[in-house]
């Protein structure tokens, strides 16, 4: 009961709709095939109908069902939103009413009532599956009442009119059972899957944290163990060895306080700058942690390159590099404070540098 046009728009659906394939391509194809069958049976069974207004009513009934079927498959939300439910129920009732009262009196073919009654049953069964069984049953009962009145007017007999709607209640019962029994099961299955995904994410985070811890322990073992061993053995240090020990201590401190800047290029540049007498302070308050992986990697590379260049040019004074906390307008700032000049460069989240302040202390004197 839908057009054969391709449905490409994504809509948000609940776990139950996803489990039953509501809105999936196979279901759209199946409903399109049913639409073709509806039209074929209608044309065959009403081949003797010649009245223009009769055909207008028959086609209008098909359009009512087509629009209702489109809403069933396209409308997001679980359960089906109540306004949409009411519209579909009204369309199903209108489709049956318009189709039946457009048929000739008496009927000329046994299949003339089949398409509209069958379409209404399918539409309302889907309404029940999508979480609105009460509305589906009310609409089905209204259709039975209308069919009973139509049977009396069409001289087929009121009971005959009622009888053509009774087989559809078997499908309605099945749809209601799906709604009452299988919907909670589908919801539980999706809740379990979501819990598994959350647990997998927690496990991945724990594994990443363990990897960082192991890497830091390995670095500590490689760089600090020899010094700690010599201290434990009470071996005296030369002036050069004391300087190296202080550089190692500063490097280990950088790895703890500025983990996102703990890359080989920055470590080497900071080491060389400290050897020249530059005081280097590296701080990380987590601004990169909230960015997407690709964006964070690009910003880290650009920021690291800028820090390496800045440290390579520094000959004295103090260099402070800080990655800002999440939520700031700027990602990081680089400050250079020497006897002659004070300079501050800020970086956007994309890693672009903006020179925000610079002052020459010699002019100030």
Describe the structure.
By secondary structure, this protein is α+β, with helices and mostly antiparallel strands. It folds into two domains: 15-194, no CATH class; 250-364. 64% of the residues lie in helices and 9% in strands. It has a five-stranded mixed beta sheet with strand order 1-2-3-4-5. α12 links the parallel β1 and β2. The longest helix is centred in the middle third of the chain and has 56 residues, at 168-223. The N and C termini lie far apart (86 Å).
What key attributes describe this structure?
single chain; about 375 residues; alpha+beta; 2 domains; 5-stranded mixed β-sheet; 13 helices; 5 strands; about 65% helix; about 10% strand; rod-shaped; disordered N terminus; disordered C terminus
The backbone outline, from C-alpha atoms, is rod-shaped
Report the portion of residues in β strands. Answer: 5-15%
Radius of gyration based on Cα positions: 38 Å
The separation of the N and C termini measures 86 Å
Poorly predicted sequence stretches spanning 5 or more consecutive residues: 1-12, 361-365
Main sheet properties: 5 strands, mixed
Query: What is the topology, as strand order, of the major beta sheet?
Result: 1-2-3-4-5
Mean pLDDT: 80
Number of domains: 2
The computed structural class is alpha+beta
Discrete helix count: 13
Pattern of helices and strands: HHHHHHHHHHHEHEEEEH
């Amino acid at each position: 009961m839908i057009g054969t046009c391709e449905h490409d728009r994504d809509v948000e659906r609940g776990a139950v709709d996803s489990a039953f394939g509501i809105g999936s391509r196979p279901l759209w194809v199946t409903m399109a095939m049913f639409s073709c069958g509806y039209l074929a049976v209608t044309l065959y069974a009403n081949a003797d109908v010649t009245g223009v207004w009769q055909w207008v009513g028959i086609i209008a009934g098909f359009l009512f069902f087509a629009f209702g079927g489109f809403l069933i498959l396209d409308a997001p939300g679980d359960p089906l939103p109540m306004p949409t439910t009411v519209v579909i129920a009204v369309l199903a009732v209108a489709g049956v009413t318009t189709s039946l009262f457009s048929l000739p009196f008496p009927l000329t073919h046994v299949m003339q009532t089949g398409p509209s009654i069958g379409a209404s049953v399918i539409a309302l069964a889907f309404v029940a599956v999508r979480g609105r069984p009460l509305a589906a049953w009310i609409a089905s009962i209204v259709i039975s009442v209308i069919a009973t009145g139509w049977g009396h007017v069409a001289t087929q007999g009121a009971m005959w009119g009622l009888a053509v709607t009774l087989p559809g209640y078997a499908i309605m019962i099945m749809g209601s059972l799906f709604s009452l029994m299988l919907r909670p099961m589908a919801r539980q299955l999706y809740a379990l899957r979501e819990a598994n995904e959350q647990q997998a994410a927690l496990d991945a985070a724990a594994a990443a944290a363990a990897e960082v811890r192991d890497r830091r322990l390995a670095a500590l073992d490689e760089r600090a163990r020899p010094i700690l061993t010599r201290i434990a053995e009470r071996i005296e240090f030369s002036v050069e060895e004391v300087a190296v020990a202080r550089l190692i201590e500063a490097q280990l401190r950088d790895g703890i306080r500025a983990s996102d800047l703990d890359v080989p290029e920055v470590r080497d540049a900071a080491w060389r700058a400290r050897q020249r007498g530059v005081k280097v302070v590296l701080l990380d308050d987590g601004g990169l942690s909230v960015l997407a992986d690709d964006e964070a990697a690009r910003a880290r590379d650009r920021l690291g390159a800028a820090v390496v260049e800045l440290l390579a040019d520094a000959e004295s004074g103090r260099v402070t590099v800080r990655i800002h906390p999440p939520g700031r307008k700027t990602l990081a700032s680089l400050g250079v404070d020497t006897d002659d000049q004070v300079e501050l460069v800020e970086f956007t989240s994309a890693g672009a540098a903006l020179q925000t302040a610079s002052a020459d202390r010699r002019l100030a004197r």
